[in-house]
Write a structure and sequence with these properties.
By secondary structure, the protein is α/β, with parallel strands linked by helices. It folds into three domains: 6-153, P-loop containing nucleotide triphosphate hydrolases (Rossmann fold), CATH 3.40.50; 159-195; 201-300. Helix content is 56%, strand content 8%. α4 (112-123) links the parallel β3 (100-104) and β4 (129-135). α1 packs parallel to α2 (35-47). It is globular and about 65 Å long. The chain starts with 5 loop residues before the first helix and ends with a helix.
Amino acid sequence: MFFGNNQVKVFFESAIAQNSLAQVYCLVGVDQVGKRTLAIEVASKLFKVEFDKVCTHPDFYYLNRGVDEKTGKERKEISVSQVRSLRSFLQNQSWSNGWRVVVIDEAEFLNEESGNALLKNLEEPGEKTLIFLLTNNDDSLLATIRSRAQVWRLSPATDQEIKNGLVASGCSEELASRITYLAAGRLGRALDFYHDEERLQEWEEEIRRWQEIFRKPVHERFKILESIVGEKDGLTRVETRLQKILNVWSEETARMLKNRAVNFSDDSAVRLVKIIDALSEAQELLAQNINPKMVMEKIILQF
């Protein structure tokens, strides 16, 4: 299920075939570019099981920040207690007397205490143990962590790679085209849409709403934004929900700007740049817990 970044894929296939894998790799790339997909695909080959069975395999361990049970929010860091649980896993023998694979997602959120607790396992993981550190930016990793890993950088796939890979996986041409348009070269997102078409439809509906905002007069734009802020979702904080919406709007506006030579005048291009900046600022303000309604209204003032 991994496509794009062919050089990286070939490297791992060769290393597995020649039994020359290192024990710690750092995979670097933007969100949903395919870091976790690659790590799981490597694990599936080592375990000799299907891709979708890796996450339940007894010799597979996945670690990320997780959610704080008290607040319901994503934790700010990977805690030392989480690393201690991982170390307990690594102290046990392999269930199948074969490989053990560990994936530490968002490894930049290891703090100094949890990072130091992990160091010994990175230095001496144990026989037939493979550890993947996944991060958006390896410069944000603790230096002691980064120095113990081989670094591979993953780039967004081309639209053709995404579409060809989806079709080869059994996706229809029509659905593959819809997914490719929104994937922005991110394999993880493309696969999410492929396996959950309802999620794809929600993203497409959000784009239609954003395009409607563009067509409406100012007073109607404010009404639409009010309704967005007032939408109820008992499972998600309003700030988190709005962040996701703004992300969709930002990407769509960037696509509109990219096509400006065909579809827009120079004045429209300047306007789009201002809107992209406003959307970015809005995301920062939401992260600072600024009133959501004020944040969203500020976007309209940039039209």
